[in-house]
Design goal:
With about 150 residues, the chain is mainly beta. The chain folds into two domains: about 5-85, NusG, N-terminal domain (Alpha-Beta Plaits, 2-Layer Sandwich), CATH 3.30.70; about 95-150, no CATH class. The chain has two helices and 15 strands.
């Protein structure tokens, strides 16, 4: 049975590791966000990893160690003594966040501790608690990993 596991990479190696794993026919998911970077002479849209130093790998127990043949791979993330597993629903949620289809229910103002409903994150609306709000940005936590995702309201 294949599971989505969390692979830790060296800093700024996420794209290289993901590409090399794809060449080895290992299914990977690297959630990215678009950032507008400014250089002295121009602006440019750059795809940066949503989860720094993390690549999600869909692999079986028998193939699990083959990822260590790729330069830049550090280790698997463990949670409570076991490899951290990401559910299919969380993968779909990350895909939705990456495509900017995330919508919050209409609220006048958000503040820490508010209960909100997020649509377009998987098959059903997700309820959550606002962890932090700064301007038009809201932070949401993935339950199984305790990882925070930032979305624009």
């Amino acid at each position: 049975m294949k599971l989505w596991l969390v692979l830790i990479t060296k800093p700024r190696f996420e794209k290289k590791v993901a590409e090399r794993l794809r060449k080895m026919n290992i299914q990977v998911f690297l959630p990215t966000k678009v950032e507008h970077k400014k250089w002295s002479d121009r602006f440019k849209k750059v795809h940066t990893p949503l989860l720094p130093s993390i690549v999600l790998v869909h692999t079986s127990e028998s193939e699990r160690n083959s990822v260590f043949n790729v330069p830049g791979v550090v280790r698997y993330l463990f949670w409570l003594g076991k490899p951290a597993v990401v559910t299919e629903e969380e993968i779909e949620t990350l895909k939705e966040v990456c495509t900017d289809n995330v919508q919050l229910e209409s609220v006048e103002t958000l503040k820490k501790g508010d209960q909100i409903e997020v649509n377009n994150l998987g098959s059903t609306p997700q309820k959550g608690v606002v962890k932090k709000v700064s301007g038009n940005t809201c932070w949401i936590t993935l339950k199984s990993l305790g990882y925070v995702i930032k979305i624009k309201v």
